[in-house]
Amino acid sequence: MTSNDPGPLVPGEVVVSGVPGGDVSGDPVDSPVTQGESPSSAAPAAPPAVAVPGRAAEILEMAREFRAALDEVPGALYQLGEEGLSDLMTHLMGVHVRAAQVATVVVAEAHIRGEVNTSISASAVQWITAHAVEAGTMVEPRDAKTMAVVAEAYGDRRNAVVADAVREGRCTLAVARAALSNTDKVAPVLPGASRDELLGHFLHLDPALGSRGVSALTRMIIAQYAPDTLSAQDAKLEAVETLSWFTTPTGMTRLTAELAPASAAVMKSAILALSAPQPVPCDEHPSVTVADERTPGKRRADALTELVTAAAKVLAGDASPTGAAATALVTMNLEALTEGVGHAQVVATGDVLDAGAARRLACDAQVIPIVLGGPSEPLDVGRKERLVTKGLRTAVITRDHGCTLPGCDRPPGMCEVHHVNPWWAGGETCLLNSAMLCVFHHHLVHRLGLLAAVTAAGVHWDLTPGRMPTPGAA
Questions:
Q1: Which of 28, 354, 387, 468 could make an S-S bridge to 449, C-beta 3.0–4.6 Å?
Q2: Into how many domains does the chain fold?
Q3: Structure letter (DSSP) for residue 397
Q4: Interval 159-198: pLDDT, tens
Q5: What is the DSSP string of 26-70?
Q6: What is the pLDDT of residues 17-48, one digit of tens each?
Q7: Of the residues 141, 170, 199, which one is the last residue of a structural domain?
Q8: 407 occurs within a structural domain
Q9: d(CA 320, CA 325)
Q10: Which of 126, 151, 170 is the last residue of a domain?
Q11: Residue 267 falls within a domain, yes or no?
């Protein structure tokens, strides 16, 4: 940390133009105290703040001008070419994320100075919302809450790692909040790790994982080092599962369900398997198919209705049970399968299950256990039918978890298996020559001639056009 960086703010400290100063509110009682220390042990109040030369006033004016410039962007877009439009989008996305990070630092500063407590707002969330309204815009309650939670933690000495990451723009607010909450869950089962180490580990995860990935990792760690704890937690969740519905003013019925991980995994896997886009016959030309125009939400609703209708027919005796149309693929290591130690993960959704729940589902539901070894390499794939094509697709799904092109989040049910090295160029139908791609990116890969390097651990795309072998290479 350089001498110009005062580090994360702590109770009783206020930075005015980069220099530590006094509590501007003049009320030391409003200064938060680090958890675990008494008010008398908190940092003593410094002398009143003094005017310090700096760029603060200039930066504030630049922020006002930038905000005004944003309002002019929509009317000027026609003046930009494709390159300019792409460049503008890149800058705007950077501003979108960075503005939230900096705003959180501002909230932390206001909280430490006592500005929040002395305002008419009852909480930091209200203080944030009030400023959004003053700016002529709105902030989602969830976003305001995340900003408030991270801002409050920012002033705690124990969270210096998170404070540094937010101040320097190295993590999103959602990941920062997830790291804070999940560190407290993991700490009891990893007593040998310091808080800084745990926070740093969560913050250095692949940003593409997002806050959901952080939460999934927490369940994995607990399953690995305290499997009984995870099983007990999930058992409590299963006991309080709920499903309710009510009629909305429009006449629609809204379903609300809270399910434990194991129950949710079965339901989500079944719905995802039936909700992929399906080409439909054209009205004028029945022999010609057109794209499925249903929204993702509509496809999921149709899938749920189809599942419930089929089950109702079986229960009424109007149909014979023929097994589930959808199969949940669950990965686990050999120890989890044979001894019930560790965890399992649902391939389609990423849900983490305790080993006991996974073993139970393997008996009661259409669940295929996939035994892993080494760097998540499939060693054995259980299957209901001994067809090589289905077994291969299962192995590819297990490794890729969905579309493999960078930035795409399409799940396996919306993807196809692509031959990385085409068959006409001598490519084999095998795991190391296969990659999952959604329909859009499958067409894109062939149109641009993209090639990938495939290993047992994953697929790595070379986005240089023209690398794929052509028919003349056969």
A1: 468
A2: 2
A3: H
A4: 999 999 999 999 889 889 988 988 888 888 887 788 998 8
A5: S-GGGS---TTS-GGGSPPPPSPP----SSHHHHHHHHHHHHHHH
A6: 333 333 333 333 333 333 344 333 344 444 45
A7: 170
A8: yes
A9: 13
A10: 170
A11: no
Tell me the β-bridge partners of 455: 458
Whole-prediction pTM: 0.57
Residue position matching structure tokens 């669950």: 330
Task: Let me know if residue 164 belongs to a domain.
Answer: yes
Please report where in the chains the tokens 């399953």 appear, as a residue.
223
Average the pLDDT over 82-104 and give the result: 93
pLDDT band, very low/low/confident/very high, at 372 (cuts 50, 70, 90)? low
- Exposed/middle/buried for residue 341 (C-beta within 10 Å: 0-12, 13-18, 19+): middle
Cβ(395)–Cβ(381) below 8 Å: yes
Q: Are 449 and 466 in contact (CB under 8 A)?
A: yes
The pairs formed by 47-54 with CB atoms below 8 angstroms and a separation of 24 or more are 47/21, 47/22, 48/21, 48/22, 49/14, 49/16, 49/21, 49/22, 49/24, 50/16, 50/21, 52/16, 52/17, 52/18, 52/19, 52/21, 53/17, 54/17, 54/18
Predicted confidence at residue 341, as pLDDT, reads 56
Q: Give the domain range for residue 458.
A: 401-473
| Residues 236-289: tens digit of each pLDDT | 888 899 999 999 999 999 999 998 888 888 888 888 888 888 877 777 777 777
288 close to 282: Cβ distance less than 8 angstroms: yes
Separation of alpha carbons 380 and 393, rounded Å:
13
In a domain? residue 447: yes
Taken as a whole, the chain contains a residue count of 474
